[in-house]
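User: My instructor asked us to take a sequence, write out its structure as tokens, and then describe one feature of it. I'm not sure where to start. Here is the sequence I was given:
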Amino acid sequence: MMRKDELIEALRDRDNARHRNAVLWCLAIIGAIAAIAAIAYAVYRYLTPDYLEDFDDDFDDDFDDFFNDDDEETADDAEAADEEEKADDAEAAEEEAAEETAEA
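Assistant: Let's start with the prediction itself. The structure tokens for your sequence are:
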């Protein structure tokens, strides 16, 4: 009786081992296919020229010249306005100091 149980157990272990091997082989095949697909995609992206990037660069260059002139003028105007504000603040501070000395 013991011999029969050992034989049945050995057959079950063998079937489990075959099942594990089959699962491992399936996972290995899927992994290999995924790796090949990733490499093919990387090669495709590397070798395919990006025409849109060239178009965008040309498009930006055309309008940069137009808008840069306005930006420079605006920046100059902003600097002049800041200087005027500082001068006005300084004048106001001088007037307040003069009033305080006059009151004292």
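For the description part of your assignment, you could build on this observation: The first helix runs from residue 2 to 47. Try explaining in your own words what that tells you about the chain.
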